[in-house]
Amino acid sequence: MKYLYYPGCSLEGTAIEYNRSTQALMKLFGVDLLELEGWNCCGASAAESISYLLSMVLPARNLAIAEKAVKDMDIKNEILVPCSACYLNLKKVEIKIRSQPELLKKINTVLNEEELHLHGNIKVRHLLDVIITDFGPEAILPRVKRKFKDFLIAPYYGCQCLRPYIIFDDPEAPRSMEPLIEAVGAKVFDWAMGGKCCGASLMNTKKEVGMELTTAILKQAKGADAIITVCPMCQMNLDAYQNNISKRCGENIRISVLYLPQLLGLAMGLSKKQVGLDLNLTVTQEVKAIFNHYC
Amino acid sequence: MESAIKQKPAFLPDPLAPVCKMLQACIQCGTCTASCVNSFAMDQTPRRLWRMVIMGQKDEVFRSKTFALCSSCYYCTLRCPRGLPLTEAMAALKQIAAKEKIASCKSGTLFYTSFLESVRCHGRVSEMEFMTHYFIRMKNPVAPFKYTSLGMRLLSKGKIAIPLTKKKKGPGSLKALFRKVAELEQLS
User: Fold this and answer.
1) Domains assigned to chain A
2) Is residue B68 part of a domain?
């Protein structure tokens, strides 16, 4: 099976372990990920803060070359995106142009500069959607080589794979990761922060405010062994400032923040190196011990 | 006489008008404010800000930091009983602030324009390059130090690269697209 794949800028840099583990996990499912050739940045949260048209054109360019690519390669007209911010930016264009022909026309006027044309027949899919819908626990269970018994995991979804478009999970009380966590023998940590905001780019533009949000999430995660995420921005915000936050609130809130395909991949027999576990900024001694015991 | 009037319109177009249109059906219920994770840090609640936009209080709107504090979590958009695109309205205000060079939004605007400059030149973003750009344009000698510790950790993991040492991957320059976008926006 083949999927067209849009990694996005983070997965080439700060979230390289997300890229590595996604590719390795999909291979275990018998899937080839074909990277979209010549892809560009989706605009992140920068384009929409500066120009609406630019925030439409940057994702649209990717969709236009993706439409061509799926036709040439004769694969299904979908594009798989692991980063939630990229996913939403691309999804927005997919959905808006369906009901706004004027917008599509304007986008195409710009894309014409590169002799590209967007028709609007490609479907944007989040990695989590693909894992739970196209594979699910039934595809994971028979492939599990290590059961992480007594490993308590807090599933963290963040915002942009859930809202505003309701595609594969409840936008306020998400649960789609739970059967996956259970499939690898771990336990789901019961908390209410799964769909709350990590502060996103406020961590750069209004750091004090961003820190409040991550602090609230990390405090609530106390008692869990690890947090599992599906977004590079969430992962970075929750992972990178733990020393500061611990100092700030006078308690140790350090916790490992892993990507979903890292956990699933390890359970399905991949090595720590193959899922890039050495690249996460924080992996606590406790979690290292658990993985050393099993892997 | 008539041609003179045409040449020099009495009123400049109101930059808030398109945002006002997005918010027209607001019933001031306050669901947005109650749903906003960042409202604790805002000087005006989102509900009040919408009212100010509708009333055309441009100076007050841009004196407020409320829209700059939106982290695009989409809770308000999801829950708005009138189905209004509230997160997009916040973004629209950020766009106007950038265009009008509103002083209180300068740092955020510089951050985003530095980011986009990297995308315009290479098609993808290179963290090191864009942050360097940002620091230079901030003209604040201590600004980089806030990022040093994280930057060093990322560098040691090979997650960010010094621009000169790494061959750029990607689609190359997107200057033609950026130019066309600017041209169309000038027309509208």
Assistant:
1) 2-127 (1.20.1050.140), 145-294 (3.40.50.11810)
2) yes
- DSSP 8-state symbol, A81: E
Choose the mutation target among A20, A41, A198 for the interface with B, i.e. most B CBs under 10 Å. A41
Picking from B49, B183, B78, B50, the residue whose alpha carbon sits closest to that of residue A163 is B78
- By Cβ distance, the residue of B125, B157, B177 closest to A61 is B177
Distances (CA, A) of A155 to A190, A198, A257, A289, B89: 9, 13, 10, 21, 30
Question: What count of other Cβ atoms lies within 10 Å of the Cβ of residue A32?
Answer: 12
H or E segment to which residue A155 belongs: strand A152-155
Rounded to an integer, what distance in angstroms lies between the CA atom of residue A36 and that of residue A13?
17
A38-63 pLDDT per residue, tens: 999 999 999 999 999 999 999 999 99
Q: Is residue B3 part of a domain?
A: no
- ipTM for the predicted complex comes to 0.96
CA distance B116 to A210: 22
Give the count of beta carbons closer than 10 Å to the beta carbon of residue A206. 20
